[in-house]
Design a protein that fits this description.
Length: about 260
């Protein structure tokens, strides 16, 4: 059976994706810094259908161990790596602790770099494999109150473009997903304080994003774009960003954020 390895699988988008792929008969790797939560999810799915372990994505050695164990449990295949783990800090840049900004970079960017680097050898040995990186609409233009998060997502977007070019000849496709605000704990507990959320609303659920992850994992290769804009709002914003001059994109972003 095909196999997917998911980071940040304990809740939100990661959990929704795990349930969707498990229902479709995939073998699912469940990892998260919350080891107890992924162990509980594994019991729900059934031991024969999944692998679960605690994983701190900022630890490259932990990636080595987790992927090695997953590879054996999955019958020596890795069809999809879903880099989903992420954190945010929502505040004026100077008001958030520098350590918190560093943590955002460590998890959102370094964690994803670790995953791609360590997983490459396994992906190359699985025909038609793919990497799906969770990006964000915040990568379209730097977001006030979400500065370090948006910066990491812009880096993820660029990395995705580069790796898809580098790895396509090896049979590995690399894509990212750019949703706007999703109804998850991160948004409700952290991002919801932004005025942009009040003005645009939260119109996507974790299941909505999981459906797009499924499409990115299973669509025919010739239909697989590098950037997949999730939801109508994101598609409109991306289109306007391409058509509008930079000063207009800056003005719209500032006004939505209350600046």
């Amino acid at each position: 059976m095909p196999a997917i390895f998911i980071t940040g699988a304990a809740a939100g988008i990661g959990r929704a994706a795990a349930l969707r792929f498990a229902r479709a008969g995939w073998f699912v790797g469940l990892t998260d810094v919350d080891g107890e939560a992924v162990a509980a999810l594994a019991r729900e799915l059934g031991a024969q259908r999944c692998f679960a372990c605690r994983l701190d994505v900022t630890d490259a050695r932990a990636w080595d161990e987790a992927l090695s164990r997953f590879w054996q449990a999955a019958g020596q295949r890795l069809d999809v790596l879903l880099n989903n783990a992420g954190i945010a800090v929502t505040a004026p840049f100077e008001q958030a602790a520098l350590a918190r900004h560093h943590a955002v970079v460590e998890v959102n960017l370094k964690g994803l770099l670790n995953g791609c680097h360590v997983a490459h050898a396994y992906l190359r040995r699985t025909a038609g494999s793919r990497v799906i990186n969770m990006c964000s609409a915040s990568a379209l233009y730097g977001q006030p109150m979400l500065s370090s998060y948006a910066a990491t997502k812009a880096a993820v977007r660029s990395l995705t473009e580069a790796l898809d070019i580098e790895w396509r000849g090896q049979g590995i496709r690399v894509v990212d997903l750019l949703p706007l605000f999703v109804d998850t704990a991160m948004v409700s507990e952290e991002v919801s304080r932004m005025k942009t959320v009040d003005r645009l609303g939260v119109r996507l659920s974790a299941d909505d994003v999981a459906r797009e992850i499924w499409r990115a994992a299973t669509v025919a290769p010739w239909r697989l774009g590098v950037h997949r804009h999730v939801g109508r709002q994101t598609r409109v914003l991306a289109l306007l960003g391409r058509l509008s001059p930079d000063f207009m994109n800056r003005w719209v972003t500032a006004r939505l954020a209350g600046y």
